């Protein structure tokens, strides 16, 4: 089960030093990992979830920067199929009450991450990210100059309902993917 999806702009080096990462879009799925705990104050619960997402975003940013500093990192534009991908685990209590696995993919200056249960199929998680990334970025129009993810939350919700319903990763056939691409107006590379 996918617990959360995080889309973030990777921070970079700026004139005033390193810029922090910025969460552009985040969605939680299913019941919170702390559902066994007594119900807390809704404002406190929302703040806790925001901190969990921020902690994941910071860790993904660190992983992407480490990979980017590698001598084997390609400098030319990367296709979605060859985009850098990684996996790491967060131990219990850091920041989730239970251990989680985070899978991520970097596309240009953006990263998309899935926070999964530790027993989740990592091959399916990578395939889901590679299929989700171009469609998510296209539906949010993040590949357009001056785009703003905050202006298109309904597009993100609609896409996630189809590709990641209630946090469940799906084995999708090529016909389904092609039909969805036609609806979204995504040109498929051959």
Automatic annotation (TrEMBL):
Listed A to Z, the keywords are: Signal
Note the InterPro entries from the entry.
AP-5_subunit_s1
Cited Pfam families = AP-5_subunit_s1
Residues making up the signal peptide according to the UniProt record: 1-16
- Is Glycoprotein one of the keywords? no
A cellular component term from Gene Ontology for this protein is: late endosome
This protein is called Adaptor related protein complex 5 subunit sigma 1
